Each structure stands twice: as C-alpha cells, then as structure tokens.
Amino acid sequence: MSLIYDLPFREGKGNQTKEAIRGNILPIHYVFNHAKYKASCSPNWVESPVSGYAVDFDGYSTYIKDQPLEVNGSFSISAFLAPRCFEACHGDVPTTIIDQINQSSQQGFALSIFRHGEVQFELGDGRNIYRFRTDRQLELLTKSFLTVSYNQEELSVTIYINGKKELESTNIKYFRPADIALSIGLNNHPFEISEVFKGGMFAGLIDFIKVYDHALTDKDIQKEYDKIRDKRSVPLEDIDLDEQKLLDDVHRPQYHAIPPQHWMNEPHAPFYYKGKYHLFYQKNASGPYFSHLHWGHWTSDDLVFWENEKTALFPQKGELSPSGVWSGSATIGPNNKPYLFYTFANFNKKYNQGVAIARPENVEDPHLVDWKMEPQGAIYQTDQQGIPSQFRDPFVWKDETEEKWYLIIGGGVKDKGPTVWIYTSTDCEHWDFKGELFSVDSSLYPYLGTNWELPVLLPVRDQQGQVKYAFIFMSFFDDESKYEVDTYYYLGEFDKQKVQFIPDTIEPELMDYGRFKFSGPSGFVDPVTNKTIVFSILQGDREEQEEYEAGWAHHAGLPIELFLENQELRIQPLENLASLREELLIHESNKSIEEANHKVKNIQDKMLEIMIEFEETENLVGLELKKDPANQEKTKLLFDKANDRVWLDRTESRKDKEGDIQGGSLKLDEGFKAHIFIDHSAMECYLNQKKMISSRASPVSSNSDYLSIVGNTDIRIKSIKIFRLQSIWKQKEMSD
C-alpha cells in the first residue's frame, strides 16, 4: 500500500509543477501566463508551513490537467486547502478540487466543495454516480485538511474534515475507474456560465493533494491531521486577491476605488464611523463576471485614498441568503452602532428577495473588518408588493430631528409601474410599512422601466439653506424592452407627514449622458462636511473575452457632490479629489486656441485632471482626448451652443472597434466649462456643474494619451489648468 499521486507544490515560482510520484511536469494554466494588457506573470505562490508552498487558484483561469490516474479498488484522497469563496449562486455546481469522473460513462471519482462549503465526493460504478455530501461546511479563508476514503471490501465511503469523521456510507455497490484526464481546480464537465467563463473552479490556496491506493484508517487520518492542526491559519494578505497584480494593466484605473481583481458592481452603503469612511460594493471573488454576489469593503480617511478590506458579507447556507447578498445601505443606528441592510436572495422561493441586517463583530475596530449577518430577515416582500423577485436595494437614513430611521426599497407593480415603498423604525430592527413613497405610470413613461433598482433619496441644499430632495433611481425592465437601463433623478419635496416624495416635474432627468456608464447610485450626507455625496459604478464596455484576459471588470466612479442652485440640481466632483494632484503641468489664461494647443501638445499621461473654460461663443468648441500622435485614435468632447448640445464622440476612440456618440442638452448663458478626469480607460466630464458624461476609451495604441483643443482660431480660452494625478494604490516590488 502506497502513495500513488502527490502534488506538493514545492517549486514556489513559475507556471508549472512536478507531480512527485509519476514525475509529470504539469503546466499551471493561468490567464496571465501570457497576459494581454499587462506584463506576463505566473500564479501566486504562497509560503506554506506544511508543503513548502501553496498555489493560489484565482477561481476562473487557474487549473491543472494531468494524465489519467490508475485507481483500482480501495483508495483515499487527502488535500490541504483554504477556500477564498464558495460557488454559492449556481445551484448544484460543485467547486472542483480533484476530478477524474466521466459523466457519460458514469465512472471515476471527484472531490469537490458544494455551494456553501460542504464537502462532496462522487464515485461512479458505470451505471450510477453516487454522491456523498457533508452537512458540515469548510471555513472560508482558513486551511482545512480533507480526507475521503473508499473501501472496496466494505463498499463504504468516509469523509473527514480536519481529522473528524463527518460522513460514512455504504450506499454504493461498486467503483469503476474512468480513463479520462485528471483535473485539479477545474471540473471535467464544467458549468458554462457563458461562452467565456466556466463555473465550478476552485478559488483559494491548495497546499497539497495526495492519493493513496488504499483506504486510510481513522488512526492514519488523525495522525496526519495532528501534524498540521496548528498550521491552518492563513494571513489575510496571503489568501485575499493581490491588489498589486494588475497595477501595470494599461487600461485599469489607478485613482478610482476598485477591487483587487475580478468583478464588481455598484458601490453602496457609505457611512462614517470612528474617523473612517466605509464604502461597500457588489463583489465576485471568483472571477471578472457577474455572479456570486458578496459585499466587498473599502475604507478611507478622505473619500479619495481607499484601502481594500476583507470581504464583509458572504452568501449563507440556509433559507435566507443562499443565492447571494445583493446591494443595500448603511446607517449609524441606536447607541451609535453601524448597521448594514442588505438584499437577501433565495432563488428557490417565488418572493425571493428582502432586507436583512448585519452588525459589526467589534464596534471598537474603526475598520469594522468582521460582520455578523442576522439569520432572519427584517423585511419580506408581500404578495401586495408587485412583481415577485423584483424587491431589492434598501436605502436607509436617519431623520435629522428625531430618533427615527427611514428605509425605502425598489420594485414594481405589473400593469401599474415602477414603485418605491417606504418603512420607518425607531430602533433599526423593527420596521413599519408606510406605503408607497413614489411611483410612475409605466404606460405613460415606459422608458422608466417596469421596476426600479437602487432608489436613493437625498437632501440637496443651496447656499441660502434652502433644501430640496433628489430622488435617484436606476430603471430596470423585467421583460424585453426597446428601452435601455439608465440612472435618472427627480428634484422635489419629501413630505414627512405623508411619507411621500412629490416631484417638481412630471419626468426625470438623466444623471449622466454616458448611457449606462454611470449607474448603481448610492449616497449619503457626509456628517463631517454636511455635503450630499453620491457614489456610482463606472461600467466597463468590453467584451467578456477581454474581461477574462484583463482579470477585472468595472470600478467605482469618482464621488460627486450634489447641491442646489437656482432651484436646479448642480453636480461637481468632490473637492477632496484635489489631493490626487501630483504636478501642475500647465496653468494659462486668456490664450488663443493656437497658443493653448502649443502649450498642451507635449502633455502625455494616463492620469490627468483638466479644467478648461472657453469664452462664450456660438461656435463648436471642445477637446480631443486619449489621442495618438498619428491622429488615428481620439475621443472628442464637443459643445455646440447654437444647438444647446454637448456630446462625447467615441467613433474614433479605438481603431479596431466601432464607437458611439453619447450626449444631450446643455443650455448655457456663459462659456463652456469642462472639468475632466482621465484615468487610463475611465473618463469623467463635469460640464458647467450642470451635466456630466462618464465614459470609457480603451485605445489600442499604447501612446494614445495626448490631447488637443477644438475650435476656430479666433476663439479664446479664458483659462486652462492640467494636473498629472497620482495613483491611490501603492506599487510594491513584484517578483515572479
């Protein structure tokens, strides 16, 4: 009896490893072995106190293939590993550790992790595949020692977690091996999420995998576990996704809040606590695609320089949130304690969304790293609240004058229209339903969607202290529509007695002319400055294959301040962003366009802040941005006062891809003023504090980072300032 397969990962570097028994040199498949948008590099290797090193499997591209392993009769598998997240949201798709099962012939074996950390073992006898699954879940971010043994004489299967027997079954008649490739980290029959991404891939660290040609005994397993029982803890920086990995990506923003790697959706739930701003976001720790909704977490001292924190909320086993934790909100509740309100999701139910609460484990920790999720929901959708499964994204705030909290949540009523409901509470625990805050008739305004996501109600003030409310929401279509999802706002009044929003206008306005690049609104009134601040996601617009190759998708937009002027909403980038300025490149005033272009012609950088004011003119003015020296690629921001129009022309942004033109109305009784932030592929344009255009430009040429000013030669530039900005992420020396 002996060891027949041993993957000890002793190399510590590179993109291949040696299996110790058969001696096969095995390639470790990894997207950045031959990177497209950054320097190539190997997977992360992390020092292991047990086997030398552990390999970091990124959850979507890292896997190993080996020749079929001959297994006959009894055998055992042991593995030492630490999962970073679980495959919670794809139903019965297990996350593969080692797989040599042939589903067609129903032969072979596979050891994997089920939805929320249950250990799963499968055996095929040629007629059936037997499936065994523990009730006990593995711990996230901590190493576990798994052992499974098959005893042919007793026709029994036993599963152990950390030396303890968790499952024993004799419900098997025979085992028949499969003659197909052995797979590590990737299911031999993967779940196709799309044409590009596959589900069921392991995310986390694997220290070793061993296969024995006999059934290990309880004593054998306990003896092996005793050797490593005190080596299970993993420093968070070793297992969390490495934020350094993508810092050299030519398109990835450097001064925007962005996850370390992979996919994100809307930032939400901002609040201030013990000197720290907190902001959360929808996160998939398995790959750069939409799925597995967790809550990622950033903290900041100033809303500009952000720090990645440990993932705050995970999908949970049970009835409440097995299918994901979706967007929500936060507030400082009674006794000055923070509360998170998240959308729970259970796709097994008809009314499968609602609101649940999480509280910090340690209120003395200003970073609030660990959170406890309550097992029961706080608010459930009723059959009187519209379309099932369209009831989400709570937004919570505290009344300014009394100990009272408000919660609104988005949805829609079929044959009526999108609707937001409102609740109140005096303790943040128990919520009283108060009816509809606001709704619209979708037969009159079909472009506003069948239901609303991410409703936000925020006060906005002018310098005289007058207050109105901005009701911001994202349209959503529960069925096929010719209209597009986008983010809108109404200005109006909040009637606290009737708990209703009364808009000033019948129809809303777009928050941003970028057509869905700015989306996922959230916000709060900063208790430090009393400013009304809105956060958003700046959506990417690349193909899935490009996001696979990049290893990231989307990031937060820059925080913006809303205020009131002449009873209209005004928008400007947060003043704190000035701390990003690294160098003033030019500062000129009263120049002709020719003179100004001479000043800017040598400016080339991927991180710029541009502030320009044109004199008032009826002629077309603007800028060409992200421009290459040969003038083959450029993105144009243009303003036409004669027609009251402003737009961003992306038809030449990228020479290998067709672009679009995004814009809208802008009426001015002054010269055109643009405040522009460029951060690699991200572009945010704030226009006379009245409108904004958020967009993207990902040119092919590596030097498409120049700019020029557009306009007739007789037009003068009243002022122009350009700053080079700095990254908010500190680059460390990388080693392969």
UniProtKB/TrEMBL annotation:
Residues 256-573 form the Glycosyl hydrolase family 32 N-terminal domain. The keyword Secreted does not apply. It holds the Pfam family Glyco_hydro_32C. SMART domains: Glyco_32. Residues 577-722 form the Glycosyl hydrolase family 32 C-terminal domain. Its EC number is 3.2.1.26. It comes from the Bacteria. GO terms for molecular function: beta-fructofuranosidase activity. Residues 586-613 form a coiled coil. Keywords: Coiled coil, Glycosidase, Hydrolase. InterPro entries: ConA-like_dom_sf (IPR013320), GH32_Enzymes (IPR051214), Glyco_hydro_32 (IPR001362), Glyco_hydro_32_C (IPR013189), Glyco_hydro_32_N (IPR013148), Glyco_hydro_beta-prop_sf (IPR023296). One of its GO terms (biological process) is carbohydrate metabolic process. Belongs to the glycosyl hydrolase 32 family. This is beta-fructofuranosidase.
